[in-house]
């Protein structure tokens, strides 16, 4: 009887359907056969054991309505190469995370827009124009031309960020709070991730991109505003209609106001992106400079080369809509003292549509 890997298990192993999981199983079968030695009997037992594992206890394959089986199989392979010793269940969680990250990307066609705090009608004198907020760093309206990109429709969730941190060997943050019945809902896996350090948020996006097979990062400040304003439209708030309707498209008192909510709890903006008006404030990639808007290049600006603070965009559920304009900016040191629900993030990619 032939003793080669290609022929030995034919007849013992049925033809596996072409799925992402079957490709992964073939990889493991080949690996196990090579490690089992040249004895035919040992190889038979190896094949039978693998069949038992596959048929009885392996998790179901990851599927997608947008990604092909071949693309998912490639994600499996990248996860396998990075984490060869994790369990099949944990491997599947990482694959699902990468697939979900790609599925949730909203394509934003590039274009030119006027970035910054343009004037709006004054309530007390409609013949004048008024700035939306009192932050002088965004009052220089300037032309920006952006290349096309894709941005996640959701803020990064607690569940996905926890999985990333676990595989980095990090303990869960606020573990004492998580064990409390009264506080447990703060850490629901579908709520926005709590963050502490800007660098960890960028590291997460790049980590997901490695498995997804595309480069991912935090959005630039210009990308964030362009997406929030649905490709640069004159939208004051990043809601479904550009206005605030508390309880329908924005939190209200008694409706989780002051606490983060599960991502996607309110309607998205016209591009299909959620929670850019409220939930957590979001880190972007840019360093902060009060004068940058007057110095910014037109084409794909990325912020100052260095500074002592990073920019955050968007509003938090516990603040007034007046702090949640599409042009509003916040600046904080990149390293905070504690993990907080106030600060979240989402990822972006320049991968083609």
From TrEMBL:
Query: Which GO MF terms are attached to this record?
Result: formylglycine-generating oxidase activity
Against SUPFAM superfamilies, the record matches this protein to: C-type lectin-like
Q: Which residues form the Sulfatase-modifying factor enzyme-like domain?
A: 103-347
One Pfam family named in its UniProt record: FGE-sulfatase
Q: Which domain of life does the protein's organism represent?
A: Bacteria
| Name of this chain's protein | Sulfatase-modifying factor enzyme-like domain-containing protein
Q: Which organism is it from?
A: Marinobacter confluentis
